[in-house]
Amino acid sequence: MATSHESSGNSSKSRSRSDQQCQVMCYHGEIAPLREVKYNGPTYGKKFYGCSYWPRTCGYFKWADEVHEIRDMQMRLLEKDTEIAELEMEKGFLEDKIKRLKETKLKLDDVVEELWIENSEIREGLYAAKADKGLLLGLALSWIFFCFMC
To answer: What pLDDT sits at residue 107?
Structure first.
């Protein structure tokens, strides 16, 4: 077994980093080979990962199906972490947009208030002009009435 370990160790060093990250590692930091239970019993034929220095092991042992479940969970966790990061970034953009919109709203509120004041002044001017017009009309009618009476 020692020679098979050495050859698998050399081949693992020639693999890319991403391949090594996908491998199961024992407590020695070595790639834990996939093995199969050879003894008769309820687990016969079941695959597992064990220390690459077997039979003198570091005690590492995982059933292959557990490792796959763990990898699936890790992938889901990574996807969720990515989704959270994207949502936090979007939240930041939206908060900035809200801040800009609030500033624009305040400016528009000021413009609306100025327009209300201007509108009120124009209305007052119109009412005053109507009153002046009514006085002039009254004065003119009184002159006409006075002229007929005299």
So the answer is: 97
Contact 50, 32 (CB under 8 A): yes
Task: Compute φ and ψ for 58, nearest 5 degrees.
Answer: -90, 0
Q: Determine contact, residues 31/24, Cβ cutoff 8 Å.
A: yes
Q: What are phi and psi of 18, to 5 degrees?
A: -65, -35
Beta bridge partners of 25: 31
pTM, 2 dp:
0.41
In 3-state terms, what secondary structure has residue 4?
helix
* Contact assessment for residue 5 and residue 52, using Cβ atoms and an 8 Å cutoff: yes
Residues of the chain falling short of pLDDT 50: 1-21
Q: What per-residue confidence (pLDDT) applies to 22?
A: 60
- Reported in sequence order, the residue ranges of 11-140 that DSSP labels E, i.e. its strands, are 34-36, 47-50, 61-63
